């Protein structure tokens, strides 16, 4: 799917064909759409790299000045996915006439730009446009991290009242998401440092200041995801210890109950034998045997309570 936009005095408008200083948004393009863009001089590799979900963040530049900026952006798959939050590549292609964004799926970041809610957006200022995307990307990481922390807190509250593994598996899913975020943010950090050394992003003071803001936001996201990951890891270790301790308590109680039940059974089994036994002629033999059994159970129970087995 290809959508073409251009900023005007009345906001962002959608076009039917390519014109200079326009923004071309490409989502999961077909072979015909890729060929249409290559006819305009866009390298084929620049179009296919962002469609590979395993591509790392980097920059590439052609001899004619065309530039590809490949970043990792957060993507929400849904609560039933193996990892609710993952990262996917987003390609930003800069030419002397166009700015092109290429992604495998439609994302919240691009959807926000298409809606026109981003103020002061100009498709003609291509470097500023790229920096706004990078800033929005860092902010989206922070927003998703806040959602993860909130969901983890809710899952933690349910886990304290639950005896099942569902909540533990949910925490594991969020831990996977944090690993994806950590890897993507560190890769984006290296990319931003490389862009900061590029003269193209240092031509105007406003652009340079905006790039520093992007780097600051990305560093904040890295610190936040590290804190969240450490807290979640410590939480899972603590719950693993609690579950193990609860299992030991249950097993200890079951062992104690087994011993208490076996004591009367031990005495009565002797009196079940078909041989001469003490008290067998005594009219209160049953009461005496019952009393001895209860006495032994009471002594064992007293010992267990002293040892804090109950």
TrEMBL record:
GO molecular function, one term: metal ion transmembrane transporter activity
Main location: membrane
GO cellular component, one term: membrane
Residues passing through the membrane, by range: 253-272, 284-305
Claim: Membrane is one of the keywords in the record: yes
Coiled-coil annotated residue ranges, if any: 145-172
Cellular localisation: Membrane
Keyword list, A-Z: Coiled coil, Membrane, Transmembrane, Transmembrane helix
A Pfam family recorded for this sequence: CorA
Membrane topology per record: Multi-pass membrane protein
Similarity section: Belongs to the CorA metal ion transporter (MIT) (TC 1.A.35) family.
Name under which the protein is recorded: Magnesium transporter
Native organism: Bellilinea caldifistulae
């Amino acid at each position: 799917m290809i959508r073409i936009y251009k900023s005007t005095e009345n906001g962002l408008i959608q076009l039917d064909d390519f014109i200079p200083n326009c923004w071309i948004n490409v989502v999961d393009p077909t072979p015909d759409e890729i060929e249409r863009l290559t006819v305009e001089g866009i390298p084929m590799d620049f179009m296919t790299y962002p469609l590979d979900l395993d591509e790392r963040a980097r920059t590439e530049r052609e001899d004619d000045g065309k530039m590809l900026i490949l970043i990792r952006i957060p993507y929400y798959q849904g609560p039933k996915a193996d990892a609710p939050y993952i990262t996917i590549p987003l390609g930003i292609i800069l030419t002397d006439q166009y700015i092109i964004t290429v992604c495998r799926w439609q994302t919240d970041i691009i959807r926000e730009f298409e809606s026109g809610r981003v103020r002061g957006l100009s498709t003609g200022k291509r470097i500023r446009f790229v920096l706004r995307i990078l800033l929005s990307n860092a902010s989206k990481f922070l927003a998703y991290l806040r959602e993860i922390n909130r969901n983890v807190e809710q899952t933690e509250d349910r886990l304290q009242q639950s005896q099942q593994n569902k909540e533990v598996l949910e925490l594991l899913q969020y831990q996977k998401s944090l690993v994806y975020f950590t890897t993507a943010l560190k890769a984006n950090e290296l990319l931003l440092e490389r862009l900061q050394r590029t003269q193209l992003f240092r031509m105007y003071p406003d652009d340079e200041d905006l790039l520093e803001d992007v780097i600051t936001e990305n560093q904040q996201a890295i610190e936040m995801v590290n804190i969240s990951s450490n807290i979640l890891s410590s939480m899972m270790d603590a719950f693993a210890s609690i579950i193990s301790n609860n299992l030991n308590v249950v097993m200890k109680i079951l062992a104690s109950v087994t011993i208490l039940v076996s004591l009367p059974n031990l005495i009565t089994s002797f009196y079940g034998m078909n041989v001469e036994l003490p008290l067998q002629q005594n009219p209160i033999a049953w009461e005496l045997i019952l009393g001895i059994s209860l006495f032994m159970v009471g002594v064992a129970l007293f010992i267990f309570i002293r040892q804090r087995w109950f």
